[in-house]
């Protein structure tokens, strides 16, 4: 079977009735299976992971974006995470029997459909990008929803599909194709946001850190704690253990410690095995030594 994974991020993490209606839109497509849904009130964001055959996944992503556009008003949205629209990003990931090129084509088809049928401006990013600067999602999101309302009118910020003006309530959407990534957050025992920002700057690729790491410093309102929120875009290049150790070392420079970390959504087993091998100092450990992998 050809299997594609889709991990759309929606700008709603507090009204669970709205989240449920978006999930129902995804479930309405036969053959598509939701693997995970994670909502965060502070980020005011929900990350959904679902899989299926390419065309089914594309249809489910479109229906979810359509539902989000009906239910989420970006004029009233506030949260810690950067965002440009009700459906902020829709990445497509090849899992089995599908090439990255096929996911790129699928992403472009989906982007065109959202732009034309929903009148939502769509920006192509990562492997699906047709403009080099848009390969990096941070460049697409620059200015976020509020800033993009004016910037989108500039020729260099025109979308790849849809109108060159923001949808009045749904904003804009980024659609792309990429390898699996790990959404990984590390919490600090401080409420000093500047410390989290400084650590994030140290580790992210755009600031001279790890090339496959994207990171921001945010303040979690519920707990009044600073957090380094991280996208590990290639865990084979930079392991979770290396990321954790680097953040811990940088935190010590500021006299703070790590209180805990979390993975948002799903994570490849290989990424966790790498961390286990590192911390347990296992020699010659092989993935097929995992009991569940043999069953």
Automatic annotation (TrEMBL):
UniProt keyword annotation of Membrane present: no
Residue ranges occupied by any Formiminotransferase N-terminal subdomain domain in the UniProt entry: 2-179
Enzyme's top EC category: transferase
Keyword annotations of the record: Cytoplasm, Folate-binding, Histidine metabolism, Transferase
SMART domains: FTCD (SM01221), FTCD_N (SM01222)
E.C. designation(s): 2.1.2.5
GO biological process, one term: L-histidine catabolic process to glutamate and formamide
Known pathway: Amino-acid degradation; L-histidine degradation into L-glutamate; L-glutamate from N-formimidoyl-L-glutamate (transferase route): step 1/1
NCBIfam families cross-referenced by the UniProt entry: FtcD
The protein's name: glutamate formimidoyltransferase
Species in which this protein is naturally found: Syntrophaceticus schinkii
